[in-house]
Amino acid sequence: MQHFKKLADIHQFNGFPKPENPLFSAYRCTRTCNIGDREFTADFYMIGFKKLK
User: Fold this and answer.
1) For the chain, how far is it from start to end, CA to CA, in angstroms?
2) 15: which strand partners?
3) Is it the case that residue 36 has pLDDT exceeding 80?
4) Please, are residues 27 and 16 in contact by the beta-carbon 8 Å criterion?
5) Which superkingdom is the protein from (predicted)?
6) Which residues, 6 or more positions from 2, have their beta carbon under 8 angstroms from its beta carbon?
7) Cα 26 to Cα 29: distance, rounded to the nearest angstrom
8) What pLDDT was estimated at residue 26?
9) Which pLDDT score is estimated for 40?
10) Which of the four pLDDT bands, split at 50, 70 and 90, describes residue 27?
């Protein structure tokens, strides 16, 4: 299981650009975003939003 201590770590792992602020990050998923069956833990909170049709 992967563990992330900083936002920059999870950005790097997923191939996202480095976050501008080390305490806050927002990412708009314009294509399919799927973490699949990857399991991970983090030292920070994550909130996700899903657009419903």
Assistant:
1) 33
2) none
3) no
4) yes
5) Bacteria
6) 13, 38, 39, 40, 41
7) 10
8) 84
9) 86
10) confident
Which of these, 39, 41, 43, 40, lies nearest to 5 by C-alpha position?
43
What confidence tier does 8 reach under pLDDT thresholds 50, 70, 90? very high
> Which residues on adjacent β-strands are paired with residue 21?
24
Structure-block tokens of residue 38: 């990857």
**pTM here?**
0.67
Q: Other CB atoms closer than 10 Å to residue 27's CB: what's the count?
A: 13
> Residue type for 30, please?
T
Tokens for 5, please give them: 């201590």
C-alpha distance from residue 2 to each of 10, 15, 37, 40, 52 (Å): 10, 15, 12, 5, 30
Q: Are 8 and 18 in contact (CB under 8 A)?
A: yes
